[in-house]
Design brief:
Elements: H1 2-10, H2 14-31, H3 38-51, H4 57-73, H5 78-82, H6 85-95, H7 98-115, H8 118-126, H9 129-134, H10 139-156, H11 162-171, H12 180-192
Helix pairs in contact: 1-2, 2-3, 2-4, 3-4, 4-6, 4-7, 6-7, 7-8, 7-10, 8-10, 10-11, 10-12, 11-12
């Protein structure tokens, strides 16, 4: 990812550089260890977001989301991440992407779960859950959202069908091709429920 980032940056391709950052953060998460490796990639994401008005809205939203994913998995205080939610919502809305909308709601939901506000977490996922149930977005964002929603249902005593959706997504044939990090995350949460 470093070589791709450098190459794209050198030729003035901020969208390519953003793709390299998103891929790097995803790879670190998938590996599941040494989350301190997020730091240089988050710095690159910050630089791209602040310096490049030419970023495509989808690239901008993906960068904003992956910065927060990295924060959730490292030692960034939840309050600092919660302060970034208005920017995340803005970037996600401007992307006009259902996949990023589902993933953004999952990230926001998880931030509220981590901070202890289940009511707010439930509000975040409730409106987007039908998109995940329709299975039009890619599997990984749907899996993130279903995992968060199922946990909210289990702890809060509600029933939005999230547990059934999580089971269905994990049992799909295409789930076997998912990266190990997101798969283990969802399976571990399924065991807790």
């Amino acid at each position: 990812c470093c070589a791709l980032f450098e190459e794209c940056s050198a030729r003035g391709d901020p969208d390519g550089a953003a793709a390299a950052v998103v891929a790097a953060i995803s790879a670190i998460w998938t590996e599941g260890r040494d989350f301190s490796a997020f730091a240089p990639w988050v710095a690159r994401a910050n630089a791209l977001l602040s310096a490049s008005a030419a970023l495509h809205p989808i690239a901008r939203a993906a960068l904003a989301q992956h910065r927060l994913i990295a924060g959730l998995l490292s030692d960034v205080p939840p309050d600092a991440l919660l302060a970034e939610l208005p920017g995340l919502r803005k970037e996600t809305d401007e992307s006009r992407s259902n996949a990023l909308r589902v993933q953004g709601a999952a990230i926001e939901g998880w931030l509220h779960v981590v901070s202890g506000d289940l009511h707010r977490a439930e509000e975040c996922v409730r409106d987007v859950l039908p998109l995940a149930q329709a299975k039009t977005p890619p599997l990984i964002p749907c899996l993130y959202l279903a995992t968060c929603a199922a946990l909210i249902d289990a702890v809060g005593g509600t029933s939005n069908g999230a547990r059934a959706l999580l089971e269905q997504l994990l049992d799909e044939a295409r789930a076997s091709a998912l990266p190990i990090g997101p798969t283990l995350f969802a399976q571990a949460n399924r065991l807790l429920l």
